[in-house]
Amino acid sequence: MHQPYICTMRGKLVTSAASFGRLVTDIDLTIDGRAGDIVAATARNQIVTQDVPQDADAKAILDKYTTLSAPLANRVIGSITADIRSARDHPSGQNAAGEQPMGDVIADAMLEATAPTDFGGAVAAFMNSGGVRAGLLYNQISGGEQAGEVTYAEAFTVQPFGNTLVVKTCTGQQIYDVLNQQFNNPSAGSNRIMLPSANVRYQWTTVGGPHVVDGTVSFDGGATFIDKAATYRVAMNNFMADGGDNYTVFRSCTDALGGEVDLDAFARYLGAHSPVAPPALNRITRMG
Known about the structure:
Elements: E1 4-9, E2 12-17, E3 23-32, E4 37-47, H1 56-73, E5 76-79, H2 101-114, E6 124-127, E7 149-151, H3 152-158, E8 164-171, H4 172-180, E9 195-196, E10 202-205, E11 231-237, H5 238-241, H6 249-252, E12 254-261, H7 262-273, E13 284-287
Parallel strand pairs: 6-11, 10-13
Antiparallel strand pairs: 1-2, 3-4, 5-7, 6-9, 8-11, 8-12
Helix pairs in contact: 2-7
């Protein structure tokens, strides 16, 4: 995912041009018009350089829609007391256990949106770290707002994919299994830790496997621990629910109920809880 490659799979040319417009894939096909078949295929990934003149027509289109969208983008939707950093910020907000403040806040918003019975009855929520694209910085001024105020555009930068919230029924065993998939993640090339809602606690270890310490997963702040034979309603986004980021166990959880767009839940949470403070990173504990 988001990697540059050109390869052949089962006799078919397969390409990817990385992400963020860094590459353009130049593909040449030789087609037999009479037979309607592709008889040859080659591809080359071309680096997109930044040394070409700006296209005036493209800039005019961009400027037009930037102006039209400004009232929505610059609308203040909440406030924060201090920087709420993500793993992508510099310096990073991520700790040694893989937890980050921005992802934690998003997970809290997900749980608040899906906890009511009519919206799924979720008892825990998890956010994929790859979906947290930025943090919220106290002194960031993007649309003339005051320091500490958060605009819709800033929230969109944090969570831009337009995923929907999904609540599924998972067994306690499935929850352990999907948490262990964080450490067997070939798509990430490394550990990819999910960010949990504030009521979740668990421990993981660097020694051996499975990595999640048995008997440490809790959905009530650590007072009691989940039963592997019991079932729990868990909130995630639709990307995760479909097995994205290699969390394939979520696919086998049942009774899916779709919900609202994740950004809408996040924006509403910011408004309801402002000023939002950076949460303590105490939900995940790394042992060893």
